[in-house]
Amino acid sequence: MQYMVCDVQYGGRITDALDRELFNTYGSLWIQETIFTPSYCFNNLVTEFSYCIPEAVEHAKFMEDIEQMPGKDAPPIFGLHSNADLTFRLKESNEMLTTLTDTQPKEASGGSGLSREEQVKEKIEKDLLPTLPVDFNFIEVDERLKVLKGPKGLGESGKMDTVPLNIFLRQEL
Q1: Is the torsion defined by CA of 116, 122, 123, 124 positive or negative?
Q2: Could you tell me which residues come within 8 angstroms of residue 141 by beta carbon, excluding any fewer than 6 positions away?
Q3: How many CA atoms lie within 13 A of 125 on its CB side?
Q4: 169 Cβ contact partners less than 8 Å away, ≥ 6 residues apart
Q5: Is residue 25 predicted with pLDDT exceeding 70?
Q6: Residue 90: CB partners within 8 Å, gap ≥ 6?
Q7: Neighbours of 92 (CB within 10 A)
């Protein structure tokens, strides 16, 4: 079983030699004869979830137990310090921020002499602002909403707070 899991099924997908060695170490630790004993526990540490082999023989019970497993395992399950997850997340965040910074447009020394941000601002002012509709006077709109009638039975004219459609329209505006 160790060979099938660690070398054949997953081992072929692991490209780093140290990762393969770590995976084989976990395989030799977890895949052994003792897993066939009743109520075998993979890790006796106190965690949120007990990783023990179910005592049931029915397939449905095994599936129920699998569904109850957490989506993310805690570092102590793998023999790591509880701060390992924090360290991993900090490293991942720093890598993401570095990637975002590296892929951000750089200022080009073109003929216009404008930075990238200034070029985008100029394009917005030139192309998009003229296409916007004229601003509306909210006080005027509010007065018109107060006299709008909703569907029959939902409220009276002049009571904007009681007509749900008027309330919705006002919120949208």
Answers
A1: positive
A2: 173
A3: 6
A4: 145, 148
A5: yes
A6: none
A7: 10
Answer yes or no: are the C-beta atoms of 70 and 48 closer than 8 Å. Answer: yes
Tell how far CA 73 is from the center of its chain.
17
| The two structure tokens encoding residue 133 | 């509709």
d(CA 79, CA 7): 22
Residue 82 CA to residue 103 CA, distance in Å, equals: 33
In single-letter form, the type of residue at position 75 comes to P
- The residue count for the chain: 173
pLDDT, tens only, 67-119:
888 888 888 877 788 888 888 889 999 999 888 888 877 665 555 677 778 88
| Confidence at 162, pLDDT banded by 50, 70, 90 | low
The first and second tokens of residue 66, run together, are: 């699998």
Q: What are phi and psi of 38, to 5 degrees?
A: -60, 140
Q: What is the pTM of this model?
A: 0.39
Encoded tokens for 161: 């707070």
User: Which residues on neighbouring strands pair with residue 52, listed in sequence order?
Assistant: 41
